[in-house]
Model the fold of this input.
Amino acid sequence: MAYTLTRATDAIATDSSQYPLNERRRVEDPVKQQIHRNVFTGKLEEVLHSAVNWGRKNSLWPYNFGLSCCYVEMTTAFTAPHDIARFGAEVIRASPRQADFMVIAGTCFLKMAPVIQQLYDQMLEPKWVISMGSCANSGGMYDIYSVVQGVDKFLPVDVYIPGCPPRPEAFLHGLQLLQDSIQEERRPLSWVVGDQGVYRAEMPSQREKHREQRIQATELRTPDSI
Amino acid sequence: MSVASPSSDTLKTGPDTVVEALKQRFEERIVLEQATLTGWPVIWVARDALTEVLAFLRDKSQAFEMLYDLSAVDERLRSHRRGLPEADFTVFYHLMSLSRNRDVILKVALHEADLALPSIVSLYPNANWYEREVWDMFGITFEGHPHLTRILMPPTWKGHPLRKDHHARATEFDPYTLTVEGQDREQQALKFDPEAWGMKRRHDDSEFMFLNLGPNHPSAHGAFRLVLQLDGEEIIDCVPDIGYHHRGAEKMAERQSWHSFIPYTDRIDYTGGVMNNLPYVLAVEKLAGITVTKRAETIRVMMAEMFRITSHLLFLGTYLQDLGAMTPVFFTFTDRQKGYEVIEAITGFRMHPAWYRIGGVAHDLPKGWEKLVKGFLDWMPKRLREYERAMMENAIVRERTRHIAAHDTTEALAWGITGPNLRATGLDFDLRKQRPYSGYENFDFEIPLGHNGDAFDRGQVRIEEMRQSLRIIQQCLDHMPAGDYKADHPLTTPPPRERMLQHIETLITHFLQVSWGPVLKPNESMQMIEATKGINSYYLTSDGNTMSYRTRIRTPSFPHLQHIPALMRGGFVPDLIAHLGSIDFVMADVDR
Ligand code: SF4
Done:
């Protein structure tokens, strides 16, 4: 599996540096390299990583942050009919300092962008970003002077959820994809172990994964009956 | 179409007296009476007469208590202006008299070299934000305005977006980038400066605290910022800061065809779904001269009321959550889910179906819809009873909301408050009764009223409104007219498919109407409706094109937020939170 390596120290921020600040590189699975060096500690590290990641992915605390329409569908996922607690992500936090991930649910407005950046900076590592809805993904139907054409113009995004707005089920699906990707991550196990880089697995594209199956659908249901 | 209903005919005979009175009093300073399809007299007045005319109209004898809307039009590219006064820009003032149930629109012509008008904040306090918006969007100054600064765009913005020579698309420019320095600059520009607002930093013995509530705060219901000047828990003053949710919907309308703008209306009051389509398609139908079928009217009413319920349910859950009750939101969202099951089966989508069409709706009701609607009608009443018992009779909720953030009808009218928030003060004014549209005159329902105009009444009125909406839906279910779901008219979009495949002529017409969209005759029209949060209207100007020349969207939440400081001075922080919960606003309905 291919990984993306991010090192916080790689980029030294100057006034003219652009967000997102960290440099990213494509690399191989770091654990593999260690396996070559030593079979025993390599295995141990892999087990440790997976144990820590298992803990992380099952207790994700979302940041209570909403921009527009998509946020309504996001909160719907938190309430009884969809019950996000099944995935361990119901502890919604009002402060970015206590949150693990931020969902950009809605349109990313020009006037709001610096505020979003500020809030993202206030979150502690490890942290992730889900971009929810066409607006956050790419500007969506708002190619207009006051809207940033996709939040990834300045934030590093982990999962994109398509839809305008995505259904609550789609949000839950996005959350599970984030969990899958967290399971494969390699973060330093302590501040003295490893090379202090964050290795994010490059997960398979959902579009390619499901293309075969989706292309099979030729008959769509008519809207004439319920 | 609904304008032909008997009650709006009686409305039409009235306003002429206003024109007469104005002409008598101001003679040649009343420049012209313009014929439009707005349904109200549109009168051009000389700039130097504006303040006097407005003062005269606000006066007892004319009783135009409310400044309903104020905005402008960039006239420079408009080709069909024959007979109208020379103008580069026009500013219009829409006044409303609720006591006499009539409106009047005043227009003032301005020239590019001299874009200034007297401010009317001393006459109508809610003119304050509207004038700032006109300054922000068009660059027209208002002399004597207390604080003429940008309101929707960031303070660092250059240019005035609604001018015809301002770019519309983000992609006409380099992609957005945010640098460390730019980040600092923007944040500095957003910093609140009390002195600029004439606020003191301290009084005799203590220093005031300035607290930023927002732009992201769980009780701010979206990207909304409120700067509080506090003395302990007491709010000395506060300044709402909006514009964090400005999506340029009005500019967008100038480059979408009449048909393809419909999905954008869904996203104005984003909890209102197809309710938002209604004023827009009704206004377009006035321009096109389309009369829709009874069936289409009734389907529209039914779906609009479904959305009134889901929107009020969202309100109720979050309102009580703001007051500290954690569980109601789980209950109301369960009900919303039930509502969405009906909505989704009929329209095919949950939040933004964009389902109304020019001349009707997108498709007919599906087989079996009755059973779904009936299921919802059976489910809701007992839930509403439960909410009343468990919540509105709860001592803590009552203590937190009764006589909190209360105001009377006069104050509400002066600030442009409409909808349930106005009716909570006891004034019986609901457009569905007063100026029925889309066939509301055929329904039997009541208008719930409050007494004290406080946070409690605003909640209670909405619960009762849901009951009345259920009654309306029940009547739709019982008496759904047979017939077509689309009007038989050449401008109905999309045109009936069966007609398309007859010969090449019909195919070409069909093709043009679907790809370019219908062309509407030059004129102006307007339609107001009683939306979920208050009165929402679209004021359309057609220049004989496939696109609108100017679309003005007047939304209820904008004046509702403007009213906050006047109401909260002297109140406490927890009261403010209760009030914010009770207003029922979404930021898209404020900033558009
Ligand atoms: S993607 Fe659609 S639903 Fe989501 S914020 Fe944008 S316009 Fe609203």
Observations:
- Residues 474 and 490 of chain B are 33 Å apart (CA to CA).
- The two ends of chain B are 27 Å apart (CA to CA).
- Residues 294-322 of chain B form the longest helix (29 residues).
- Chain B touches chain A through 66 residues (CB under 8 Å).
